[in-house]
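User: Need the bound-state model for zinc ion:
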Amino acid sequence: MRMTKTRTATLIAVAALTGLLAGCGRLLPDAAIPPPGPTASVVSGTGVIDRPIDAGTFGWLDRATASPQQCEAELRAARVTFAPTPDRVNGPTCGLTAAGVLGADYGTVARMAPSDVTMTCKLAAAVSVWRRQSVEPAAREILGSEVVQIDHMGVYACRGVRTDAGFTARASAHSRAAALDFSGVRLRDGRRITVAGDWAGDTPEARFLRRIRDEGCRVFGTVLSPDYNAVHADHLHLEAERGRLCR
Ligand SMILES: [Zn+2]
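Assistant: Bound-state model below.
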């Protein structure tokens, strides 16, 4: 009789504890829930950033970076430093979602200047693919030197799309930190290649810039170059969102 009472009391205690734990589980914030299964873990050196560019690159990159956890796992596997930042709303069309600070890429040589730039994880992954699979090999093949620095004019700007006639009301991808304005590279042998100074003509420098623009079109959703309009005479606008405009 005494044993039965104890057992009943134990069962009640276990049931109560189970109920409490279940309740706790529902109260956990989203951030504490582990990222989904195998997609969030990528074996070092085998992820999307180490895959050569082909006709399907935009699609498979888009899928591989669909969730922030998956995107961050891809960057980690490629030894690209990316520190996520909290989502932030800066206005009706401006703010940061699934963004972070892109730091050094320890899997390769070229560094961004300015360094440590805030952008969406999708853009960080696209920039990393482009750097390793296009910019660096193209410089070796066409210019015979190593890219040590990638110069840019920034990512985040809360503004409308800029045209030759001025700013429009439509929000630019820059207002979501989803586009990088690339201005040129510096090579190990000291040469500096710029979109502003080297785009025209048929020099090796011009061929290098056109090749990384064309390959960029397979990596980014939208790429705008000096061929598009005068506003882009000194940079390539590289946008990681869906758009499929390339010129
Ligand atoms: Zn731009």
